[in-house]
Design the sequence.
């Protein structure tokens, strides 16, 4: 198993965004995600933390302004 669950920070709480992600492609201010089921999402955020042993990726949205 090489996939990970992706969470996004929302008011200091991790919220599950997409499970079993196996493709992550950062481009400019966006991150494209695709999981093993073919589900796809694009989010305007940055990678905050990677916990590869725990199969967990945490994203953080850019602050407005």
Sequence:
């Amino acid at each position: 198993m090489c996939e990970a669950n992706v969470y996004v920070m929302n008011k200091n709480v991790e919220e599950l965004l997409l499970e079993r992600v196996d493709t992550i492609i950062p481009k400019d201010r966006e991150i494209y995600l695709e999981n093993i089921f073919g589900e796809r999402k694009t989010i305007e955020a940055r990678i905050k933390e990677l916990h590869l042993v725990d199969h967990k990726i945490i994203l953080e949205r850019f602050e407005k302004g």
About this structure: The radius of gyration is 11 Å. The mean pLDDT is 94.
